[in-house]
Amino acid sequence: MDFKEYVTDKLAKLTGLERAEIEKAVEVPPDPKLGDLAFPCFPLAKVMRKAPPLIAGELAEKFTVDKYIDRAEAVGGYLNFFYSRPAYAKNTLKAIEDKKEKWGSSDVGAGKTALVEFSSPNIAKPFHIGHLFSTAVGNSLERIYRHLGYKTVKINHLGDWGTQFGKIICAYKRWGNRSVVERDPINELFKLYVKFHDEAENNPELEDEAREYFRLLEEGDDGTVELWQYFRAISLVEYKRVYDRLNIKFDSYAGESFYSDKMQEIVDMLSDKGLLTESEGAQVVDLSDEDMPPCIILKSDGATIYATRDIAAAVYRKRTYDFDKNIYVVGTPQALHFKQIFSVIDKMGCDWAKDCVHVGFGLVKFSDKKLSTRHGDVVFLEDVLNESVQKTLEIIHANSPDMENKEEAAEKIGIGAVLYTFLKSGREKDIVFSWDSMLDFDGESAPYVQYGYARGRSILRRADIDFSKADYGALTSDEEYALIKQLELFGDAVKGAAEKNEPFYVNRYVTNLVQMFNKFYNSCPILKGDVDKRTKKARLALVSATTTVVKIALDLLGIQTVEKM
Ligand code: ARG
Fold this sequence. Notes:
Layout: H1 3-15, H2 19-25, E1 37-40, H3 42-48, H4 52-62, E2 69-75, E3 78-83, H5 85-99, E4 113-117, H6 129-147, E5 151-155, H7 164-175, H8 178-183, H9 185-202, H10 205-219, H11 222-245, H12 263-272, E6 276-279, E7 282-285, E8 295-298, H13 306-321, E9 325-329, H14 335-347, E10 356-359, E11 364-366, H15 381-399, H16 406-423, E12 431-433, H17 435-438, H18 446-462, H19 478-488, H20 490-500, H21 504-523, H22 533-557
Parallel strand pairs: 4-5, 4-9, 9-10, 11-12
Antiparallel strand pairs: 1-3, 2-3, 6-7, 7-8
Helix pairs in contact: 5-19, 6-16, 6-20, 7-9, 7-10, 10-11, 12-13, 13-14, 15-16, 18-21, 18-22, 19-21, 19-22, 20-21, 21-22
The protein binds arginine (ARG).
């Protein structure tokens, strides 16, 4: 049962107001001392021609308490309700016990498909911290949608096509060495890319050579295509190694190259609808009616570009997956690009353009220049993960020398710390990367939350009593009640996160949950001290419910748990 609905029903009978009206009006008081739910009587004042405090007083008198509601109290113009704590505890903890890892799920997404495109690095260009931001947010969103009943598809729109391949092929032919590239593909390909640019400064003919190689690639020249395939394949192996560490499996790696033969149809469709106009030799879709610069479809030399591929990709995705939502997790600097392509799709007459969403995110800054990078200014994703894991391992060695499986724990905590950092605030905010706060076991961090989980698990391991038939009615202290109320709120956090495409709702939720758990743990004895059997069992059951929910929430963030810390 839902306590809010229950109060709403009772109020509807009492006041004669519509349920919907009451539902909109009731609010959670800012201070828990004022009760669990408040009904503001101000809107009734006009109809009843009475002052709100008077109405609240009368309603309080008429309201009959029962086994779910302890009392109703008039304070100012508000009628405040206090739930029965034993009834509330039983109701909530029983529900968690029943739903287990499905707690916080719902069926809002039943029968619907949500595509989440994220990560999407560019081959031969750095796989950098921005891609990690996209990876963290996208991975979490996909998990959140799945928890809400959506069928989801994870897409990696690889940057595996475009003029940079002409450059890479040119550089490889001149200075490359297969065995060197094979040893460390992403870095070596990137080095070749950098060398190309350095050399091209003094030797501009290199640019022509690169263009020629890309032309050969587009034409399907055997040798050139083979090299491209080789570069793509060895890079993918590297990417997948990183994704494995993050526990991510993409459903599709259909990247830019996948659409190279699907663009002519788009160009034809646009031209049939009379949407193409010429501008400085290029074919563009005019978007001045929406105050945007034109969207270039074909460059003056007839070549397609990034935007053309994105339009082809959206059409392909609609045909292939018939999505209800098509989400792009890409940095905010590309906001205009997505507005333009969504608008072109809309002009093509696709009513599903409205289901395409760009989910942007901010920039990443470094508070200390201490991040060791082998590549000048460019920060490589895997280096960030390695450094975080390494630093975590040092902390573990220093603080918990007896801990088992140090390496395995450091991997989960170190990676969790990085992911948490990206999911900690609203995604459009810029992020300041600081090892100190990321790995602060007492601060707002993954290790703090993971530690709370491990502490709960440790209590359960040491439990010396069977608590499977606990009487939840024993949980009535302020700390216990606050914790149970937080457990109840999980579903709202998950739904809110999906509505706004903001995983930080779940992140903030789980951080608060662990804070409340720690307060409970510090003020309510569980295994030791002055505690009777009934209370002990109920507290153990509360610890168990809490660890279940922390684990689900972390899982929705893509962060793993550690059993012993
Ligand atoms: N590869 C691009 C980049 O690194 C991101 C791809 C974004 N997705 C898309 N459908 N355009 O900037």
